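Students often ask why we bother encoding 3D structure as a string. The short answer is that it lets us treat folding as translation between two languages. Here is a chain of 209 residues written in the first language.
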Amino acid sequence: MWQLILLWFYLVLFRLSENAPQPLLKYIARIRLKQIILRASEIPFWRKRIPNVIGDSTYRKIEWVAKKDFRDSKLNYLHPSFSLQQIIKRTTSGSTGIPFTFYRNRGEIPELQALMLRGYRWAGFRQGDRAVQTFSSHKEKLPYWEVFPYDNPSDLEWSRFAFYQMLEGERRTLLYSFPSFVIPLSRFFVLDKPKISFRSLILVGEHIT
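And here it is in the second language, the structure alphabet:
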């Protein structure tokens, strides 16, 4: 019985979190931001970049960093409590510059998957649709999505045909990708006219003009 009560509680909480008033959402965001800053102050890389006094305006005073800062830091931006077994190594494709290596905590995976599924639902995902990511760093083919690993725009001269073959058919596709991949792909679509039906696009990681 208690499992059903707990499930009902989480379902209600899940819905409320989507439709909560803006002041409440902003309040929750401030609390979470403060927690992140306090946690970051325990990390050598961030400690010298965060003001000593933590307040609502602290994030405006945090020192800006670039990819080069992380490359030169020799992993001192990871929390000291992390073990190597907890860390997943990721690498960007380098489509906009030099490939960037970063690290994630394995404990984040369930939350990331839940956020992904929520994003799919917001984008109109329906039963029978396929969700496809073009991130070469996400090589795991989970039940929630398929992976097209050739995400470098310079590869589209040849990789687009494998992409068409992967997506052709009656099923609608929700494509999760970068603008730098989708924009040149759209130009090839005009030329090739592949028989692909998109439900929607989720574009992340870069500016969309």
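Translate back mentally: The mean pLDDT is 80. Keep this in mind for the problem set.
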